[in-house]
């Protein structure tokens, strides 16, 4: 059995530890089918590859494969393309050699045949450069998204701090007003007592 038909394990860093995601024959076949449906869009330089991987992730989740993400699919696909290129180079050296990789014909149809029939076929180096360019573009988009998220979180944090400060000031102001009212009440009570004493004193003096 070749390496791509066996179960492949991916370990992902996540909150609280590490999660493991498994590729098997069915999930790999579905990945190939979903990519094949979008292969022309993947070649379009105006199309963000990350967005296409997101579509594939959504379809795979809908098919019951939970916990998968764009990075897992992209990494798996790159490994499969490497396997395809290795098989193709082997056949170039020895055309009689049998290829045991079950996805070779599918990949050959997607990549090799189109390159041969196209008058604007790209060399391996051109394809590699384009692939690296797409990777950098996706990484840049991811970084921009992360930066925007960070700025939004920082803005939210500052807003929360300002709101908390206002709340504390409001509590202090209410406490100050309550203290003033209590002091005024006690002063008034003291004045009442003093007036009563004065009245008693005047009454006593008038009787002398």
From TrEMBL:
Q: Which InterPro entries match?
A: Myb_DNA-bind_4
**Pfam assignment, any one:** Myb_DNA-bind_4
Origin: domain of life:
Eukaryota
Q: Which residues form the Myb/SANT-like DNA-binding domain?
A: 21-110
User: Gene3D superfamilies, per this entry?
Assistant: Homeodomain-like (1.10.10.60)
* Name this protein carries in UniProt: Uncharacterized protein LOC117564393
Species per Swiss-Prot/TrEMBL record: Drosophila albomicans
| Lineage, opening ranks | Eukaryota, Metazoa, Ecdysozoa, Arthropoda, Hexapoda
């Amino acid at each position: 059995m070749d390496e791509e038909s066996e179960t492949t394990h991916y370990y992902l860093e996540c909150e609280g530890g590490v999660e493991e995601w498994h590729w098997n024959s069915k999930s790999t076949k579905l990945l190939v089918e979903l990519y094949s449906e979008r292969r022309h869009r993947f070649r379009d330089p105006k199309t963000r590859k990350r967005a296409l991987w997101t579509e594939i992730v959504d379809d795979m989740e809908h098919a019951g494969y939970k916990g998968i993400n764009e990075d897992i699919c992209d990494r798996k696909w790159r490994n499969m393309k490497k396997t395809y290129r290795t098989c193709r180079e082997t056949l170039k050296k020895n055309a009689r050699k049998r290829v045991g990789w079950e996805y070779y014909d599918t990949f050959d149809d997607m990549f090799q045949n189109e390159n041969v029939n196209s008058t604007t076929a790209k060399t391996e180096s051109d394809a590699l450069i384009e692939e690296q360019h797409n990777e950098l573009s996706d990484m840049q988009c991811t970084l921009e998204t992360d930066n925007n998220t960070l700025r939004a979180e920082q803005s939210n944090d500052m807003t929360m701090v300002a709101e908390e400060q206002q709340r504390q000031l409001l509590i202090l102001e209410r406490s100050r007003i309550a203290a003033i009212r209590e002091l005024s009440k006690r002063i008034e009570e003291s004045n009442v007592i003093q007036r009563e004493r004065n009245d008693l004193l005047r009454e006593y003096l008038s009787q002398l």
